[in-house]
From TrEMBL:
Residues 20-198 form the Cytidyltransferase-like domain. It comes from Roseivivax halodurans JCM 10272. Pathway: Cofactor biosynthesis; NAD(+) biosynthesis; deamido-NAD(+) from nicotinate D-ribonucleotide: step 1/1. This is Probable nicotinate-nucleotide adenylyltransferase. One of its GO terms (biological process) is NAD+ biosynthetic process. Catalyzes the reversible adenylation of nicotinate mononucleotide (NaMN) to nicotinic acid adenine dinucleotide (NaAD). The lineage of its organism: Bacteria, Pseudomonadati, Pseudomonadota, Alphaproteobacteria, Rhodobacterales.
Length: 205
């Protein structure tokens, strides 16, 4: 049976383990697809939803129009268990803590996990109401070139040090009560949207 809501249009299996990968996706690239496949496997997820952001609150320059980023994301990620979604635009949220509150309210049976690359763990403490993110859902962090140490040194990792689970138990992450987080040392892909933009590989926005 599906757990659907008319606001975001998301239809998720009841009781499913669902990873949320929020991002500007300006544009989407193979690094996003790679960490998504790793997260599906290593965290034992049934679905991953790409939350294509209306605009990162910490980034001064706005991204390309949402429709262009959604279309590019759908070209990059074709997978039966991955959904590319504009849920934040439909909800009118752009801060992650608020997005999580809304999605959890709309999908009470679903076990959500917030997914992010290690660069975002480094600056998580600058996000609005960041502790609420850690307290609402388990967080899965995936290694990214240049950010291996963030699991040891970031403010968030130090504040929540006792909530960290080892990667040998990563498949349990969606089932563990928050706060809980896990750093996955997956093979890394040195690719970024900014590098693609710098080489003129994304003309939108
Ligand atoms: N190559 C990668 N390895 C690991 N995580 C990644 C990688 N690329 C993006 N991510 C993660 O995916 C999420 C969305 O990333 P985003 O859309 O900002 O892409 P980006 O390449 O980081 O963009 P930009 O270079 O413009 O900052 C973030 O949590 C980010 O950490
Ligand atoms: O909630 C916040 O304050 C906040 C601050 C910075 C980033 N985020 C979210 O983090 C995700 C990754 O953003 P980005 O731009 O690095 O792809 C995306 O979903 C953003 O909305 C959220």
């Amino acid at each position: 049976m599906a757990d659907s809501d008319p606001i975001t249009g998301l239809s998720l299996p009841r009781g499913a383990r669902v990873g949320l990968l929020g991002g500007s996706f300006n544009p989407a690239h193979e690094g996003h697809a790679h960490i998504t496949r790793e997260a599906l496997k290593r965290f034992g997820l049934d679905r991953v939803v790409w939350l294509v952001s209306p605009g990162n609150p910490l980034k001064a320059r706005g991204p390309a129009p949402l429709e262009e980023r959604m279309a590019a994301a759908r070209r990059v990620m074709r997978h039966p268990r991955v959904i590319v979604s504009d849920a934040e635009t439909r909800l009118g949220t752009r801060h992650t803590a608020q997005t999580l509150e809304r999605l959890r309210g709309l999908h009470p049976s679903v076990r959500f996990v917030w997914l992010m690359g290690a660069d975002n763990l480094r600056q998580l403490h600058r996000w609005e109401n960041w502790r609420s993110i850690m307290d609402q859902v388990p967080v899965g962090v995936l290694a990214r070139p240049g950010d291996r140490m963030s699991a040891q040194t970031s403010v968030a990792s130090r504040v929540y040090t006792s909530a960290r689970i080892g990667q040998a138990a990563s498949h349990l992450l969606p089932l563990i009560a928050s706060p809980a987080w896990c750093f996955l040392n997956v093979p890394m892909m040195d690719v970024s949207s900014s590098a693609i933009r710098a080489t003129g590989g994304w003309t939108a926005g």
